[in-house]
């Protein structure tokens, strides 16, 4: 049994937990004894043998499909079935086949992708070229430039000096590139490695390597992970440590949370109700059968003899199951397939939307999932990253304060001409000519300022040709500052682990790099200690102004006051600031400190804490030089987008790792915060309630929504807090129109989203551009990735992706709203037509002695949902729109009904049920009254069952088609073709199946011979059809007319408006609103200080892609 399940892809054995990995280089026999996974990957779900059984097993887990198999079994029992088997088999096979084809296509694509990766070639030291899937743990492989990394490798040797390599990790962790350092000898091919078992920690690796009897420690800096690409390195050799599913990339590619829309959850509830309602109807009819058999049954025994032992109770029991078969159309078997087709069509509209295509980056919008489209029309909360999402993450050096003087005033002056500096960056722009003049005049303070910017950093230079410098910085801030120093005459040219080479005002100068005191989130600063060519020791320090001020010498107090005024001015412009300071060191003092630093850096316990203490000893009594200010420009259209979303009553929360001041300034710049807004800067725990009472003294546990406030939040706000504190945070935040959470980690971003999801009945959306946003994107109902400056990890984890934040308003206000409207219309019409169809059967039961006779022809029952009404409703659900996209932008309030679930809910379903009940009464009793005791024009009797069945089904089809026409706001050629084509097909099929020829060929299957031509040529039949249709739609038309006149919705008002849509929204100029000082915000990652001192360099490849569409970027509509 176990082997059978294994063949079907079901693992029945518990895998032994691996505690430690032990391997030897090039010893396959030894390594295979541990049964480590090979390097083959598998993302496909099926194979040739398992596809059909597993896929059918998955499909029959859907309640509706399993129910129809149960119906098929019932239909095979002659005592129960009054319908032919094909009425159930044909719809079921069609539904299963469509799903099979879709799943097969998806899995074939997955197989192709797997085969493409597994069949890549790599050079293995012992066997030559091997396919990736044949590489084993312990093999030594050779990689060449621009090749993908085969597996998780321990680096042994490379072609670069100092055994460096350069890799691109954008597909792995969101970074552009990463250096890896090795210091081993490939000539020794016997290595024994013991390391941690496979895990998903990208930033951690522990192990030991034994070589020639010596043991060396291994850490993450010597590991090259699968998912990276070798760049700017001719070759390298590596030892395979983890392969295939054990690699950290695949360990991080676990099953994503399956997201389902609120409509999906509601549909599941409604389907369960439908089952109960079906049982209720069948019970009523079976009771009626028992009463009828008891009172009238004996009158028919002569020509309808009963079987032996049959009585009224048995007849009622069998009738119950017979009506379960007949009324099966109330359970929507084709609903799920139709919904998938609808969602797929709306996803293509997002992919094809040229107004969401970004020309500069050649990036179209992409719907990465097809199951969440209508959820886009119900968003209540948006959680956004700041850097790279609201801003461009491209920094420019705009202002600076040096020795109490401010430079860089914005004016209409021409750009500064840097032609005097042959190494200047031609892209750099600055408008204050005074600063250049001061630099050229030899001002020692100004030159010291730019010397600090050129020395105090961890930037890696690359000079491909003489004079063409490219800087690779850990953060765009550092790159902007080093580029500024370069243009003002202090050019950072190159570095080694021991030296930094500059060109100072045209003179080459080399400084000895003695120490790098690296940045972290606690220190919020970095320093370097250098020795000048003259032998002078200097510590240069830059960091957040509040941190630097605490470490200044008292002699800098006056300069600090002036610099603080300049910082406040820069903060009002939304700039990111740094304070710069220095200190001259004594040689003897430094030597003593260096010994203590070495002792702390080699400590095995509390190394970081000891280093921080050592750093504090020397970073004191600093002399202030000034401050720098860089601008992280907002993306195009961000203020307009946020204003539009706010008008749509969407709450926007910004979750960022920046300081409160920086985040607040961006909030003012992008229109989240207004000058008149009252703010509450909240810290945990006891002040939450006080802050809420301050904003709204009358508020209770569930406060009303107030206008925009600011909520600042420190890094420990959610993690490890009690439930009551979380609720208090939520209550306080929900009083705000806009919330800014500061200094949050990636995990805390996800926790904030989860907090809102858990306690608020609202749909959430998270949008970000970096690897640190992935957890938030996966947690929210909808995840949106922006393909920006921080790699593709956010996009790969998202449900929808595009290039600019401004496209979010089109995604929600246009595509989201249309998708929600279309889905709701589809469900309302789908349930209406099916319930109306079924209720006619129900009423007919009271006129046929509850005998489970069908009121329609069997072929009409078979084709009703599959042919006659399928395409019109799909056309309605794919192309319909209440107003066009321009009106959607003009009136963002149109988005509100989706947030309130007004178009489809349990109440709306109840109204559909009542409407269907009324329509079915009309569709049954009007034709019944018209056919009763009626004769043809030639005096012959027309009141037979077949004529009544034809009239009833024709009235039904025309009535539901007219009803669909009334629900259609936007007519296209496709809608017209589907509607009129379906009616034409109905009449064509009816006349064909009721013809003499079909009866003669298949006598038992086509008994309605001549009914169509005998009935449909009578005027009274067409008059009945017309009257029935009018009576069915009259209440709908009357209700809509009265509501438009007396209680019009926003949709009614917009559709009736005569004004032309307004021009494009105006752009909002940057306003100086806040006077708070902006704090410089470093990234969460630790700096590159260790990298610099160990000699590991970093390079970045230059990429380019051809344009997809030859037209200019589309402005925000």
Automatic annotation (TrEMBL):
Ranges for domain P-type ATPase C-terminal: 795-1048
Record field: catalytic activity: ATP + H2O + phospholipidSide 1 = ADP + phosphate + phospholipidSide 2
Binding site for Mg(2+): 385, 387, 769, 773
SUPFAM superfamilies (UniProt xref): Calcium ATPase, transduction domain A, Calcium ATPase, transmembrane domain M, HAD-like, Metal cation-transporting ATPase, ATP-binding domain N
Source organism, top-level taxon: Eukaryota
Cofactor section: Mg(2+)
UniProt GO BP: Golgi organization; phospholipid translocation
Entry keyword annotation includes Transmembrane helix: yes
Membrane topology per record: Multi-pass membrane protein
Keywords, in A-Z order: ATP-binding, Magnesium, Membrane, Metal-binding, Nucleotide-binding, Translocase, Transmembrane, Transmembrane helix
A GO MF label: ATP binding
InterPro entries given in the database record: ATPase_P-typ_cyto_dom_N (IPR023299), ATPase_P-typ_P_site (IPR018303), ATPase_P-typ_TM_dom_sf (IPR023298), ATPase_P-typ_transduc_dom_A_sf (IPR008250), HAD-like_sf (IPR036412), HAD_sf (IPR023214), P-type_ATPase_IV (IPR006539), P-type_ATPase_N (IPR032631)
Protein name as annotated: Phospholipid-transporting ATPase
Record: residues binding ATP: 385-387, 478, 519, 542, 576, 656-658, 743, 749, 772-773
Record-stated family: Belongs to the cation transport ATPase (P-type) (TC 3.A.3) family. Type IV subfamily.
Lineage: Eukaryota, Metazoa, Chordata, Craniata, Vertebrata
PANTHER family named among the record's database cross-references: PHOSPHOLIPID-TRANSPORTING ATPASE, PROBABLE PHOSPHOLIPID-TRANSPORTING ATPASE
Active-site residues, as the UniProt record annotates them: 385
This enzyme's EC code(s): 7.6.2.1
Primary enzyme class: translocase
